From TrEMBL:
This is Fe2OG dioxygenase domain-containing protein. Pfam families: 2OG-FeII_Oxy. Keywords: Iron, Metal-binding. SUPFAM superfamilies: Clavaminate synthase-like.
Amino acid sequence: MSFGLPIRQISFRDALDKYSMEMSNLTSRLTVFMASDLGVEQETLMGTFQGKTQSVAFHYYPPCHHPDKVIGITPHHDGLGLTLLLHVDDTPGLQVRKNGRWYPLNPLPGAFVINVGDILQILTNGTYKSAEHRVLPDVEKGRATVVMFQNACVAGIVKPLPELGEATYKAIDHVEYVKGNFRALAEGTRFVDGLKIM
Ligand SMILES: O=C(O)CCC(=O)C(=O)O
Ligand SMILES: [Fe+2]
């Protein structure tokens, strides 16, 4: 994917092209493990990610001497398929919520943080849960991350894989899903909750 960058920024463009391809490859490799864990065909899960869009975010969180008054990123769930997060430095800040408690996810050299997004939660019929997370600023040091969001769907539709039994989420056109997800994010709600079949 070219990200529509001007040709003149050749080195950045090349680096981003390469990074984008490597993240697609990593996603494919991860789906192989997930497919075997879920008991579905490798190609089925891999196919939901292959050829789909990616978006990238470059975050920088400056040091902040009033961490009690400021938040880096407010608590949220990622809305797409998988998120591949690279820590550029060793500054902590990312936290994940489990059973109502926040846990730090400190950077490990050479490791990615992989987040399940809401679409993967739907695809796996709720077997994998999208994790709520936030970023707190550090008092002393700035923090940089590169975050790749991998999209996924089944033939243009966001829905549970039929292999995973009776669907517990309604099927929705991918374009409608993305619109609804952005709307919900702005309202501070979760679009995926409205797709749940009670
Ligand atoms: O920068 C981070 O550690 C988290 C970024 C994030 O959660 C996001 O971009 O959705
Ligand atoms: Fe996030």
